[in-house]
Amino acid sequence: MGLLVEGKWHDQWYDTSKSGGRFERSESQFRNWITANGEPGETGVGGFEAESGRYHLYVSYACPWAHRTLIFRKLKGLESHISYSAVSPEMLENGWEFGEGELADPLFDANFMHQIYTRADANYSGRVTVPVLWDKKRNTIVSNESADIIRMLNSAFDGITGNHLDFYPESLRSDIDAINSMVYDKVNNGVYKSGFATTQDAYEEAFDELFVALDSLEQRLSSQRYLVGEQITEADWRLFTTLVRFDAVYVGHFKCNHKRIVDYPNLWGYLRELYQVAGVVETVRMDHIKTHYYVSHDMINPTGVVPKGPTLDFMAPHKRDQ
Ligand SMILES: N[C@@H](CCC(=O)N[C@@H](CS)C(=O)NCC(=O)O)C(=O)O
Fold it and tell me: Is 100 annotated among the ligand-binding residues?
């Protein structure tokens, strides 16, 4: 694990010394926006129009942020329009790396993800994260922010695909934004704040906030089917990718062990329902998920031994429609 400083790779773990042992996530730096006709999008930069075959998505199957983008590519019918490839699950001294066969880099045959970043910006300083949405025409990174990428995929290509499913409908936007910001801080990022904390206080603070949030989501899902009512929105997919990793990884590896998702009847049924949505199961690679976390974070798990369990029956009937 490491980062680029003015285009040079440095192998170093997150620095929590100035934040009282707290893990602080850095902001994504590539924030361009694809729109139907290339007009500037939400972040104000134009010139990236939706075109079939122009863009490539680099993901890790292990990563919950990248996983969101794979789900949107699938549900929005973009498979023949946006190519994708996955990196190896182990993230070691060179950061994310490409592998053999389906884990190779199909565009440049690069060895490491940091080489994709320096192709876009030879002097880039910052973390080398996935997902990355690459523009084959302008030879640069459109975006390395999953929250932005799923918004683009939600609408920019509708004229090409004819798929008008809308996971961010106008009338629900303020509710979606509100739940997203709580879920991001306490749950999506909350599990990382718990797992990467280097002091007892920082860990307990993140842990307590995480389970207060999960309790409130459990409550919410007792009276409504999805996070903002009766239709699946972006907010549900953003929560899903954390929930699906929770019992297999976050409970043990990130010490989020007050309760498992299977102990919450509503969250567990909801998780199974989302998992069973057509197309989603192919985006979930539990082998990559477990290997990535347990092997890559050697300051948390120095032996790199990957636990065999737990057994999770995501296909059991969810009965959320009753
Ligand atoms: N805000 C980014 C976060 C992406 C992110 O942190 N990805 C992790 C993998 S789960 C990563 O690549 N970490 C490498 C690092 O921090 O050096 C997004 O949502 O796209």
Answer: no
Return all residues near 31 (Cβ < 8 A) that are at least 6 apart: 43, 45, 143, 145, 148
pLDDT of residue 1: 81
Give the chain's count of helices (H) and strands (E): 10, 9
Is the CB–ligand 1 distance for residue 148 below 6 Å? no
Whether the upstream peptide bond of residue 89 has omega within 30° of 0, thus cis, is no
pLDDT at 241: 98
Tell whether ligand 1 has an atom less than 6 A from the beta carbon of residue 131.
Answer: yes
ipTM: 0.98
User: Is the pTM above the cut of 0.90?
Assistant: yes
Q: Phi, psi (5° rounding) for residue 4?
A: -95, 135
pLDDT score for 76: 98
pLDDT for position 44: 79
Angle formed at CA 45 by CA 130 and CA 134, multiple of 5 degrees: 30
Distances (CA, A) of 28 to 128, 142, 234, 303, 321: 9, 11, 19, 31, 38
Residue 271, judged by CB atoms within 10 A of its CB (0-12, 13-18, 19+), counts as: buried
End-to-end Cα spacing for the chain: 46
State which CATH number among 3.40.309.10, 1.25.40.10, 3.40.190.290, 3.40.30.10 fits the domain covering 3-161. Answer: 3.40.30.10
Closest atom of ligand 1 relative to the 149 alpha carbon: 20
Helix pair angle (173-183, 200-223), 10° resolution: 150
